[in-house]
């Protein structure tokens, strides 16, 4: 099933179709867990993020619906987050092992990776995780019922305006976050920029019929930026974990090697991410959105 919105179809039908598809896939993954619980949680959370991005794209059509469902699905995602965070720490340590510049650093990172992997496995084998997964399936059912009731009766012209406004809001928020990231450089600024870049990446797929070639290029750039900012955020999370869980990281010497690699890798990621973000999010978000609106009307 295509997860691209069809310009010649009623927007409300397309929103229901795409959102339902993501939610059903998330539910199936949580129930069957084909690659284990931690991979099921990771896959389901990605689907939930797509749904929330979709609802943000059309938020101006029904702000109450968007707010309610964003809270429902967001709470679900955060509830699964503690388990996912444990997996993220493992993946980050593995990536940093490859970035080590000396044999000593690499060996220290390998030991840290093994410790974090054992911690992750202990968390996902906990009975509380099973209960959390069961609750997540129930919330999926509730979200599916809610999207079936989504009601938006509008013309193609109004649909284009709604999508253009969603594109503009994402671009504006990203541009503000980019300025703050350049000036302050703290992890929260980069995290906000990453979230809005994820929206832009997903929105390019949803709106591909408006301008396939250009939006595909934008989507590729956004995907690269999401990767850079995601790895930067993972380093920030591992840094915070290391600050508060020294005993679960390893010896002081191993911790020192970890910190050195994280600093070097974080600097590299941010130096590549900031120029790319500047290209992706122009200061004039409104003009960019007006093009999307015009192209969607033409595609319809």
- Radius of gyration over C-alpha positions, nearest whole angstrom: 21 Å
The overall pLDDT average reads: 92
What is the N-to-C succession of helices and strands? HHHHHHHHHHH
Helix content: over 70%
Overall shape: globular
Terminus-to-terminus distance: 20 Å
Give the tally of β-strands.
0
Taking the sheet with the most strands, its summary is:
none
Which residues sit in consecutive blocks of at least 5 with pLDDT less than 50? none
Q: How does this model look, in words?
A:
Pfam families: CHAD. This is CHAD domain-containing protein. Residues 8-286 form the CHAD domain. The protein is mainly alpha-helical. Helix 8 packs antiparallel against helix 10. The chain is globular. The mean pLDDT is 92. The protein has helices at 11-32, 37-57, 63-99, 103-124, 127-148, 156-183, 187-206, 212-244, 246-249, 252-280, 285-299. Helix content is 84%, strand content 0%. The chain has one domain: CHAD domain (Alpha solenoid).
